[in-house]
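FAQ: What does the model actually see?

It sees only this:
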Amino acid sequence: MLEIKERKVNDIIILDLKGKITIGEGDKQLREKITSLLEKGEKKIILNMARVSYLDSSGTGEVVSLLMKVKKAGGELKLLSLSQKIKDIFQIAQLLSIFDYYTDEEEALKAFE
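And it is asked to produce this:
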């Protein structure tokens, strides 16, 4: 089960994620959440992944697909607090370079300016 808590700082949405992003588990929840934010006109989104315990290949694909979806809608998606394990997964898949990712929330928020 993936828990998604939404916070708003100015015009930026921060999604605090907790749990697993895997096939049939967190991937669908995350997709639905991002889709509903885009439908409401929210285009600045940060995924706080500090408490994501596991990400499988399907979850990785979903995060990449959401990045493309947000960009297509004219928005920006940034990642926050990637664990070393998740960073390694993105590195191995050669995906780290397509993401803006930050270790500090303040930095991630400033990156939208």
